[in-house]
Amino acid sequence: MRILVTGGLGYIGSHTCVCLLKNNYEVVIIDNLSNSNIDVLEKIEKITDKKVTFYEGDLCNKELVRKIFKDNKIDEVIHFAGYKAVGESVLQPLKYYRNNLDSTLTLLEVMQEFSCHNLVFSSSATVYGTPKKLPIKEDFPLSTTNPYGTTKLMIERILADVSKANKDFKVIVLRYFNPIGADPSGLIGEDPKGIPNNLMPYIVRVANKELPILSVFGDDYNTHDGTGVRDYIHVVDLAKGHLKALEKCLKSKGIDYYNLGTGTGYSVLDLVNTFEKVNKVEVPYKIVNRRPGDIDACYADPTKAYKELGFKAELGIEDMCRDSYNFIIKNKESHN
Ligand code: NAD
Ligand code: UD1
User: Fold this and answer.
1) Which of 60, 94, 310, 329 is 20 to 30 A (C-alpha) from 34?
2) Do 34 and 102 share a domain, yes or no?
3) CB contact at 8 A, 217 and 294
4) Whose CA is nearest to atom 30 of ligand 1?
5) Best mutation site among 100, 148, 153, 294 for ligand 2, i.e. most ligand atoms within 8 A of its Cβ?
């Protein structure tokens, strides 16, 4: 089986490519390096001792996408490519609508042209907006609070329409909760440019003394210790979820939606304390005001993914903390 992975050099894409190659899939990647580094390609090949076919370029470039489908018989597609920074999407909405929607439309048109009808799409728990109940199930009402989230929801709707109009088109939408961690080799991981917005990348930089102190956004939430609770999932587990989705996609009809999370919520302070204990480092922090738009708690009901995909996250919060830090330690030269 040959899989086209859009955005395959990014954080989740690179871990998924490793998992695909280890399971004897052939992998073709398109990535424009807008949020990744070409070194990742070599690292994927080093971890797996397998070769990848790589196209550097933009998924919005229809001629290039046609060439990829002409040169390679693609069986299924996993679509990761897109911009993902919530704050930036509020400041530059058009950049987000243009890239995330245009790239998806181009991909879908070319898939139809080449009669490739199997797609796994990266959506996000952000499409549940502010959930009224927990844990979150796939049939909960959908809404968004920022342009990034709106692009995800719009793409979900486009995919539903396409699969309705063309009965051959099969789509699995995966709604990720909070992916953290890294490949245990320490060769690939999450390495955001500039000052990180998300919690784990910030913690590792404080632990590595690249940043002085973590700001904990609020300690007056309705949670066990007052800090925000999220469903963190190891990126290696998340990657395995994509293999289950590819298998399901071949057998299914229409469109299906699955939460990928562990089902367990941890607070900001749970994560900080575990990180310190597992890695024997200090993560100084101070409590500051809430971040606008943040919610008390968010965690998945992972039952549907377990029952229908056979997917269950196996790695725990200790593994996530250890592997996130290991990646930074192994890549210290590029950080200090
Ligand atoms: P990432 O930014 O690390 O990876 C995305 C990759 O896509 C990058 O390598 C980037 O260079 C590439 N890309 C972007 N636009 C492109 C285009 N037009 N043409 C070709 N390549 C393009 O992000 P990630 O964390 O790996 O996320 C992957 C997907 O999962 C995204 O769609 C994201 O919205 C979604 N997602 C991520 C999270 C998360 O917390 N990381 C959570 C929920 C959903
Ligand atoms: C963020 C995105 C969300 C996306 C998700 C996927 C925002 C507002 N939301 O969710 O759309 O789907 O990532 O990973 O960016 N925190 C601190 N200090 C920090 C950073 C975070 O206390 O420096 C807290 C937050 O208040 C929150 C928790 O840590 O309670 C997790 O935050 P973060 O990693 O940014 O993820 P989310 O906000 O859940």
Assistant:
1) 329
2) yes
3) yes
4) 122
5) 294
Q: Tokens in use for 284?
A: 């100084």
Ligand 2 pocket check for 145: Cβ under 6 Å? no
> Looking at ligand 2, which atom is closest to the CA of residue 85?
15
Ligand 2: nearest atom to the Cα of 229: 30
Name the domain count of the chain. Answer: 2
Judge contact between 19 and 240, C-beta under 8 A: yes
Q: Residue 104: what pLDDT?
A: 98
pTM for this prediction: 0.98
R_g of the chain, CA atoms, integer Å: 19
Residue 69 maps to a domain: yes
Note down the domain range covering 285: 199-230+263-327
pLDDT 10s digits, 187-244: 999 988 889 999 999 999 999 999 999 999 999 999 999 999 999 999 999 999 999 9
CA distance 242 to 27: 13
**With DSSP H G I counted as helix, E B as strand and the rest as coil, what are the percentages for the chain, rounded to 5?**
45, 20, 40
Tokens of 220: 């007056």
If asked whether residues 132 and 148 sit together in one domain, one would say yes
Same domain, 219 and 246: no
